[in-house]
Amino acid sequence: MPELPEVDVVRAGLAPAVTGATVTAVTVFDERSLKRHAGPSEDFVARLSGATFDEPRRRGKFLWIPIREHQAETTDPEAPASEARASESPASEALVIHLGMSGQVLLRDPDAPLDRLTRIGIAINSPVFGRVRVDFVDQRIFGSMAIDDLVQTPDVPDESVPSQVGHIARDPLDPYFSDTAFFAKLARRNTGIKRALLDQTLISGIGNIYADEALWASRIHYDQPTSTLSRPRAKTLLAEVRLVLGKALAEGGTSFDAQYLNVNGESGYFSHSLNAYGQQGQPCPRCGRPIVREQFMNRGSHFCAYCQKVRRAASAS
DNA sequence: CCGGACTCCTGGTTGC
DNA sequence: TGCAACCAGGAGTCCG
């Protein structure tokens, strides 16, 4: 399941191909992949056709490509075409991409056969790559594409995000992420730490895999109450989160397959380096006792029952 | 505010 | 061999 590193590999892989590219054709093969688009597929196609893309952006697991300008007929017949043509006007809309559980974005030769699970195909004319196809492939259809309005963020000038991303917190690799604000929110919360790590409105980009990995590295039990985490332990956890995300990012970047122009949402896993996730029954790399798997939050939690125990708050009796 | 249940969804795997 | 049941969970919603 793509988390921040995988999504960022996709962003980085898309950037050289789509930046400055113009959309020449859009095909929606499965409307269910437009579940985050507020409108019918015809509207999606109309708003995307003729669009010119800006550099792709990311927050947490959300990815979007700002639309620099639009050369298709405006949907509002009253609007004078010349007014919307101001060359330096900031993008007001974006193509929003969420990979969900199984989404992939593939850059393909225009004549390449369609993957069986392609849900949306976008043909573009790229200044660098020429004519290519941007295929959205998604087996389980938890992912989606959408055209959404960009809205100014409240805390950083000249920064905007799609309206549907507005509630998503900054991710720990975002330069404007506030560590102290994060610690303060953790202390105020009355919930378990893994729940908090997976709460995209508190800290974004972390999914089940990297939550388990960061908790293992920090020797923290998934259900440790956030309010009982000491500041040093919370700092350690955040540092381990950044470490595990950064490491995956580095490995994902290197596994990028340039020959296929294949921007693959699942290519970034550093499966060789997993210490806890999916390692049930395997010895804990630290103490040798078996990693266990428990059902938690409707998903698997992998941890070392010896290294990672719920600790009482220091003030408790 | 919190947590649990439920929804979306299907290909690959497992089990009979 | 064949088919059904099961499994993976990101994110949103609803309810108690």
Descriptive report:
The protein is an alpha+beta fold. The protein has six helices and twelve strands. Strands 2, 3, 4, 5, 9 and 10 form a six-stranded antiparallel beta sheet that branches. The structure holds a DNA duplex (16 and 16 nucleotides).
pLDDT average, as an integer? 86
Q: Which bin fits the share of residues in helices?
A: 10-25%
Q: How would you classify the helix and strand content by structural class? A: alpha+beta
Low-confidence stretches: 81-87, 254-270
How many strand units? 12
Beta content: 15-25%
* N→C terminal distance: 41 Å
Largest sheet: 6 strands, antiparallel
Tell me, briefly, the overall form: globular
* Count, helices: 6
Cα gyration radius (Å):
21 Å
Search tags:
alpha+beta, 12 strands, 317 residues, DNA-binding
SSE topology:
Layout: H1 4-18, E1 22-28, H2 41-48, E2 51-53, E3 57-59, E4 62-70, E5 93-98, E6 103-108, E7 118-126, E8 130-138, E9 144-152, E10 160-162, H3 179-188, H4 193-198, H5 208-218, H6 231-255, E11 291-296, E12 299-304
Antiparallel strand pairs: 1-7, 2-4, 3-4, 4-5, 5-9, 6-8, 7-8, 9-10, 11-12
Helix pairs in contact: 1-6, 5-6
The protein binds a DNA duplex (16 and 16 nucleotides) through loops.
At a glance:
The protein is an alpha+beta fold and 317 residues long.
